[in-house]
Amino acid sequence: MTESAVKSAKRALEILEVFARQRRPLALKEVLDELGYPTSSGSALMKSLVALGYLDYDRERRTYFPTMRITVLGNWVPGVLFGDGALLPALEALHQAIGETVVLAVQSDLHAQYVHVIHSAEPLQFRVPPGTRRPLARSGMGLALLSAKSDAEVERLRRRINASGEDGLPQTREELMARVVEVRARGYAFSRNSISPGLGIIGAALPKGPFGRVFAVGVAGRVERLDDKKDAIVADLQAMIERLEHP
């Protein structure tokens, strides 16, 4: 696959993400200005998305807007990931009880990726969109996911992470396993200021989901608020996990 093809695929998805953020019809210039794309290639890509049926073009207003094909393309994913069971209602109940942002994450290669986020209404709180990725071996949600894996799996991932160079300074087997063992012993991970100053997350692994995948749920917010409510957050997290394991 050529580098230009990879770049075009990346840009096509980034264009669709602009519409997800803006949620309104957009002129070509608005999209290209937000993404910093050159006019010639950006215009050609937008026209291709129209031709493929993913965008609609209003000639009178000279604006683009996603078609329902975008919805159809991914509307099956929540049902496969979450089923018709109690997971999403349980996340909502946790959010209501704690009043902080609630995050559901799954492993995506060498990262923990947020697949569902319920934001807190509090100002200056933890604000990230679904799709956000965090380092698997250096984030609270990553460590929660690793805690559900065997020691051999953790070691294989550590080697790959170190080889990739994406996760900062390499970690030794002893360093990473010490952190994973601590999470297993406590039943949760508590990450403070590791990604964003002043912010943290308390996360724990959930029972295995579809296709043998492990999910983790986290409560995120200002570190001082999480410290104040830690006991209640941990208790609610553990109670939720218990209900999901034994409905």
Keyphrases for this structure?
50% helix; Beta-Lactamase; 247 residues; 3-stranded antiparallel sheet
User: At the fourth CATH level, what is the homologous superfamily of the largest domain?
Assistant: GAF domain
Mean pLDDT: 88
Report the helical percentage: 40-55%
> What sequence of helices (H) and strands (E) makes up the elements?
HEHHEEHHHEEEHHHEEEHH
The domain tally reads 2
Number of helices: 11
Structural account:
The protein has 247 residues and is an alpha+beta fold. It folds into two domains: 71 residues, Arc Repressor Mutant, subunit A; 169 residues, Beta-Lactamase (2-Layer Sandwich), CATH 3.30.450. It contains eleven helices and nine strands. A hairpin with a 6-residue loop joins strand 7 and strand 8. Helix 1 packs across helix 3 and helix 7 crosses helix 9. It is globular. The mean pLDDT is 88.
Summarize it:
By secondary structure, the protein is α+β, with helices and mostly antiparallel strands.
Please give the structural blueprint.
Layout: H1 3-22, E1 26-27, H2 28-35, H3 39-51, E2 55-58, E3 63-66, H4 68-74, H5 77-82, H6 87-98, E4 101-108, E5 111-118, E6 133-135, H7 140-147, H8 151-164, H9 173-186, E7 189-192, E8 199-205, E9 215-222, H10 223-228, H11 230-245
Antiparallel strand pairs: 1-3, 2-3, 4-5, 4-9, 5-6, 7-8, 8-9
Helix pairs in contact: 1-3, 6-11, 7-9
